[in-house]
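Quarterly update from the structural biology core.
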Amino acid sequence: MNVVDCRNMACPLPVVTVRRALEAANGEPVRVLVDPGAPRENVARFALNRGFSVEETGVEGGFSLEIRPSGDAGAAIRRHEGREGEAVVLVASDRLGDGPDELGRLLMKNFIITLLDLERLPDRMLFLNSGVLLTTEGSEVLEALEKLGNSGVEVMSCGVCLDYFHRKEQLRAGVVTTMFTIAETLLRAGSVVRI
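Predicted structure, tokenized:
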């Protein structure tokens, strides 16, 4: 079995390295050594979202993830009838528009809450820059984001952005993601709405 050591790699290198290893493995299982925390979560999520199974065991200083092909490809990715590709909402700020900050925050709150009333929901919501503040403790839209998540919308916040604002430990909605996953999601999406 091919073993890939991704310990001590900065984001997004673990995911990029694992993607290349899985492509080269040609359907064979791959064992990945990763650090605890975001690297473990990001690699596991990446593999699961692509139809692989992941078996995790603790090892000294981290985790070993055994990644195998599975017959469940695509089950984790929801698609709406009549739509090609995923619908992605890119949230790059904690406010909407260029007007006064208070108005911008109110508009963003109303936008996210209004999504719950739409017939078709986005497949993913990506939060970047100050947009990650909406997914962390103290945000006024956490309840709405939780409901969206329970309805199948993947809520994902940029790990580098959370680190920049010192908010990773306060994440309360969705999961931490990498720039690799963000870039891949945007390039594969059927539609992207940037707010």
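The CA atoms of residues 79 and 86 lie 6 Å apart.
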